[in-house]
Amino acid sequence: MIADFHADLRVPVSAQVLRRSPKLLESLREALHVRHYSNRTEDTYCSWVKRFVHFHKLRHPKEMGELEINLFLTHLAVSEKVSASTQNQALSALLFLYRHVIGKEVGDLGHVIRARKPIHLPVVLTRDEVKALLAQLAGDKWLMASLMYGAGLRLMECLRLRVQDIDFASNEIMVRDGKGAKDRITMLPETLKQPLSDHLKNVKRIHDKDLADGWGRVLLPGALDRKYPNAPAEWRWQWVFPQENRWTNPKTGEEGRHHIDESLIQKAVKSAAFHAQLIKRATCHTFRHSFATHLLEAGYDIRTIQELMGHKDVSTTMIYTHVLNKGGHGVKSPVDGL
């Protein structure tokens, strides 16, 4: 132990921290994984911890606390001019690190800065604008965009749909492990049933060919593939929107298909909005905002919309009540009565 201590003294402090950093990040990833955080959250939190350590000249987080956290958050807000949500995301990553990895309770950190998040109204397309945007899309891109608008799906919720999540008989779509690790049921639009059925027939042909070639297996959530060894090859577990080419699992050497990459549909929607000559900034998430707003305009109660959107609190859904200030049944200005 003494020899190791003196050996560390001969090594520059920065090198010592770099040598220990992988262990810190491994522990952070393990703590996140145990609590079933998504892979994206793991990557994001690790990225913030790296930036925090580098900002403080490679000091170990154990040697720092409230002061250093506040200095880092101030730097993000003042020098890098990040948004309030980005600043709070960085804070959440650091608080998780201290609470679950370093073992320092949040209360021991004192008063850390938490940015006040501004309230912005979402960008919402009119029905004509949605129609014009969808008209610029074709094939599976049109189908994905139509599902996001017609069922209020987030982009990754749409891409992660599996065959068994589509219930044609009940006109329902099961959204599994959505935001906040919550399942919910939303509607399957009547007009999309036939196009989606035709699409799945084509996907089935591809899957059958993959099986004939000796592949056709997908990754399953959790440890289901160990519990049900044959399940990865079953039709019901296949992605509704698989990627065009097979990928190779680096661990097993097996070839399979993942779902389509989100960047492909994001680029397609961006291009469609440009060619539709929309003035508003339309993204994949704009379809979800438009879904909720148009339902509210149609007279559906906000609790129903809350369930379809998967919002934990109705206050989140209340943001869409801005539509009450427009339209034929909206609030009229007194000047219009003069």
Question: Could you please describe the fold and organization of this structure?
Answer:
By secondary structure, the chain is mainly alpha-helical. Helix content is 50%, strand content 4%. It has 2 domains: 108 residues, Orthogonal Bundle (DNA polymerase, domain 1), CATH 1.10.150.130; 199 residues, hpI Integrase, Chain A, CATH 1.10.443.10. A 3-stranded antiparallel β-sheet has the order 1-2-3. Strand 2 and strand 3 form a beta hairpin. Helix 2 runs antiparallel to helix 3, helix 4 runs antiparallel to helix 5 and helix 7 crosses helix 12. The chain starts with a helix and ends in a 21-residue tail after the last helix. The N terminus is likely disordered.
Task: Describe the protein's topology.
Layout: H1 2-10, H2 13-34, H3 39-55, H4 66-78, H5 84-102, H6 127-134, H7 139-151, H8 155-159, E1 166-167, E2 172-175, E3 184-187, H9 193-212, H10 224-227, E4 247-248, E5 255-256, H11 262-275, H12 284-297, H13 302-309, H14 314-317
Antiparallel strand pairs: 1-2, 2-3, 4-5
